Structure prediction request, 1013 residues.
Amino acid sequence: MSLEYENDGALHAKLIEEVLSQYPDKAAKRRKKHLSIAKSGVEAGGESEILSECDVKSNIKSIPGVMTIRGCAYAGSKGVVWGPVKDMVHISHGPVGCGQYSWSQRRNYYVGTTGIDTFGTMQFTSDFQEKDIVFGGDKKLEQIIDEIEVLFPLNNGITVQSECPIGLIGDDTEAVSRKKAKEYKKTIVPVRCEGFRGVSQSLGHHIANDAIRDWVFDKKDVEFEAGAYDVNVIGDYNIGGDAWASRILLEEIGLRVVGNWSGDATLAEIERAPKAKLNLIHCYRSMNYICRHMEEKYGVAWMEYNFFGPSQIETSLRNIAKHFGPEIEEKTEKVIAKYRPLVDAVISKYRPRLEGNTVMLYVGGLRPRHVITAYEDLGMVIVGTGYEFGHNDDYQRTSHYVKNGTLIYDDVTGYELEKFIEGVRPNLVGSGIKEKYPVQKMGIPFRQMHSWDYSGPYHGYDGFAIFARDVDLAINNPVWDLYQAPWKERPPSGRAIAAE
Amino acid sequence: MPQSAEKILDHAPLFREPEYRQMLAEKKLNFECPHPDQIVTDQGEFTKTWEYREKNLAREALVINPAKACQPLGAVFAAAGFERTMSFVHGSQGCVAYYRSHLSRHFKEPASAVSSSMTEDAAVFGGLKNLVDGLANTYQLYDPKMIAVSTTCMAEVIGDDLHSFIENAKDEKSVPRDFDVPFAHTPAFVGSHVDGYDGMLKGILEHFWKGQERTEAKGTINVIPGFDGFCVGNNRELKRLLDVMGVSYTFIQDASDQFDTPSDGEYRMYDGGTKIEEVKRALDAEATVSLQYYNTRKTLDYCGQVGQATASFHYPLGVQATDEFLMKISALSGKEIPEAIRLERGRLIDAMADSQSWLHGKKYAIYGDPDFVYAMARFVMETGGEPTHCLATNGTSAWEAELKELLASSPFGKDAQVWAGKDLWAMRSLLFTEPVDLLIGNSYGKYLERDTGTPLIRLTFPIFDRHHHHRFALMGYQGGLRVLTTILDKIFDKLDRETSQTGVTDYSYDLTR
Prediction:
């Protein structure tokens, strides 16, 4: 269901020029490398068709004072990778703020009795005081682990998520973790994700992946009967239930999901992962590292897939099935056929209401590219996209998705994003909480694409229906036509369409 | 197949469908290696006991579900209350993303702040270069009238000195020499967001007042609200009261417009706030009044040092607290409290009298910032309620003593307990062992409501899961009406729910209550 269109590259080039002219010279020079227009690339057919080139610098330091939207390594580790592991207690080790601001904000759904056998929506902090900075926090950390064992005896492990001061004052969280792991015969994982490390969330993902390798794998005898169709889902954080809407499909085509990383995961699912036959990776950015490691060390192959929107779901399911042979392929065709009526009904309901609407995206991880085709399945046009913390390989992968002339912005600043949106006036912006309200003030519909704006799931066929509904309700709400007081020019455009 | 285009189910109903329930049950059984159900149930029950409570309250190091944030959040909020002021937080950049998100999620509004984006090299060499470049970029891109600099804990640990760094930046022409760059060191490992508020406010006042000649303007008053998630409603209500009284005042740190900009097609990065000229003139005020003592201790000391009279309150809410506030303002300004305000007071009393039977003897647990908890406990007692548990994670021993004195002054406070420095996991034990009728706090209290069944009334920052409450005042007599109605709604909704079973409990499903 590929949609043919081209974007207004000339307009976008002009917008880039305009924003750069507002910076001091030194900053303009640096920012220039992060902004570009996707250009028509290699002509080719098949799966690896490159539609365009997104040639920007990425994964380098943000410029001070420009209002980057990025977070930090702690956010990448505690917030993204480790936080969702539900049967472990994750200590935000350092002052109170980091844990407080990230408490329950990513919507990693899980099933369990919180505070008893699961701990996902809780905030455990060592609440550092001045004396801890001066004298070090290792003793306090030991005591914290003791107290956790008294109050939460059913925890299956602990992680120590280091905040900025830990690395600066020279604490040895590794030694404490080792000692206490031995004492309690439990997995205790120190993660060196101090916020000043690296340039964004991204290094935090990498450090968190390395911690799994160094502190979880091969530490226990894992009793597990491996099967021929065992897969791990890697990099699905079950936001609003995404991983569940994906799992149901994988099980339907005959696979056994033996581990889900890390949404709704238990430590056991992480420990057994190397025994699976295939790693299916959704968020490549945050978890490719451990997939590469499992491939090298345990011979577990990995492949990327995309469960946003029916076009990508079908392609992905077929690719996955191909890996397992005819039996699974046959089941897969049946599953695709089973869901086809739902897909057709969703598209015939929403496409006429959304056709031709333009979208700008600015997100993290996989979404700046992965969701593009989901919008296109609804007849919508992606005019701009960019990553908070992407690397070069993300932008390469993006070339398979975006059309000629698309505006590309890496580590966009608040100023740039505002000016781009003003200049392009898209019909919808998909980005985060910090961007939501400025955009809506301009009278432009918005959906949060980190938290699904408290909706979801968006993965899988069940999720696509919700996604389509949400995009429709954002764009076709009558409020956008009420912005102008009637005594002040411009009557309403009458664009809103009532929900069906 | 549960999903259909006609009736699209999102997460809440979708995962209750049989396909998903079965899938999740099998996932648990086959792959999660869970503890046996009985063990989980037993541990769950154990957490409701006095024995668990004692272990829980004996914690010395671990903090679980605290009701406080860190200093720079307060500094960013404080800066948002001044005309065209950009917050610049010196240190790691992720922190700033967190403050902005946190404020946006509560106010449902944009929240702007920039970071000096320090990374590992800055940890080694210091963040001077980041601050010099950063100020230049902020000044040029965001066209502020003032840049208010605070710090993350990273910059504090390595010991960056804001005063000399800002001087350096001015030397290097990042901003013009006479451009206003007040600052405050706001270490996250000292105090909480209320101290960050205090520090930033003092930093701003010092920046404008230091070395200036003060010519006292008799009868003029500065009003400082403190960190307040309800600033939108409260500040406007207080200004209305002061205007009705005809007081000559300056509201110092007023974020009510900044966090309540209209939607009319234009994004206003800056809106409202105390004007810089007003801040300068405020030095001459006869007195400075703080609405939240524990948010402004250093600031008030400073105001005293420059020669102003000072007075402070604990979030003037309810009858007697509002009375005291107005009388103090009247005394300081020489303006009478007009009849119109006396009538407003009477209307609040009237409402309280109308509803007293529903409120008398109700037991409450209250948590939040120190001044808020003090205020709510006092109002609850005015309605005949009993504040059984009063908890402030950022409460000091001085706060504890002061609140205990208040509680001792009323028969309704005789069984009350004050919990300074405790967190919401401690509150969970308190609610299980000594239950109450109602819990007053913020959105984080919803986990306590779920676990203990205590109905939660959201009346303080942050409120993420209900919309627009902060747009209505809680302070003053009008605010008292709002608080009263909110509490009553919770009581009546619960009663209706409990009496709505057809043919079983609905004999009590009264039309009039």
In short: Residues 71-209 of chain B form a domain with the Rossmann fold fold (CATH 3.40.50.1980). The longest strand of chain B covers residues 217-224.
